[in-house]
Amino acid sequence: MAKFIYPTDTTRVTSGFRGNRPDHHGIDLAEAGDHPIYAAASGQVSSSYPSSSYGECIMIVHTIDGVTWETVYAHMRSGSRTVKAGDYVTQGQTIGVMGNTGQSSGQHLHFELHKGRWNINKSNAVNPLDYLGKEDGGNTGNGSDPTDVDTRKNVTLPSDWLTNNLGWLQCMQRQSWVYKEPNEFAEVVGKIPLGSGHVYLGNAWDGKRFWFKIANDNWIPETAMRIEKDGKSKGVIWNEWDGLECYHHANYNSGIRDRVGVGQWEIEFRDNNWIYIKDKGWVEFDEKIIRWIR
Question: What DSSP line would sit under the chain, residue for residue?
Fold first, then answer.
């Protein structure tokens, strides 16, 4: 397993490391369309912020075989960053989308690799192409399982995924199978690793359990995932708790207004993590008992 994987789904380099641009301390990977950005290795997010030069930018610190590294992901699409400083990420986890923010003259990912911590002089920068995809025994410095990696070939997302999604999901099991359709008899399209983050595109019910859509033709059972962030405010839920308490307002101190049983319920409004069941009252969204159906 490579210590560092390519940080996006294209390997097309449009500008190399330094060369005739001595102040270019990384590489540019470019392609038109929607391209997710991945964490090149497991680690902890050191920065996640909008920069005047780097644009929408994320930096991640990695400790691999006792050596500290830091990776930089710049010019990402506005509003696409999915992690904040202090978060832990796994290799291959989606952290954003390729964009054209900051001092950029066209859509691309500017990627830097530093052997040591990033500094303003970029004195620790090394050529990423000397490390990306190199088979070298794996990222053991973070205690990760070298066999638990993303093996999917297709990770394309719908063109409107940024505005048409239900939130974010995190994988809770090692080597979780991903299927082409939402049922266990469908074609397997690969595996995703423990801790990896994915956009929550939709769901389906097969009569026994819910399935989550994480990319085009990519479905995974609910038992393998946790809803990390849910932003939907209107639709229909499935409630699995008989006697779920509904409150007058979006807080527990407002008093119980009604109770609902197991089944489908229409949602009209949202207030932070509280949702309003039509004609019944407010409930706090709990992914262990509540699922969006539509």
Answer: -BSB--SBS---EEE-SSTT-TT--SEEE--SS--EEE-SSSEEEEEEEEETTTEEEEEEEEEETTEEEEEEEEEEPTT-----TT-EE-TT-EEEEBB--SS-SSSBEEEEEEES---TT-TTEE-GGGTBT-BSS--TTTT--TT-----S-----TTTTTS--EEEEE-STTEEEESSSSTTSPEEEEE-TT-EEEE-EEEE-SS-EEEEEETTEEEEGGGEEEEEE---SEEEEE--TTEEEESSSSGGG-EEEEE-SEEEEEEEEETTEEEETTTEEEE--TTTEEE--
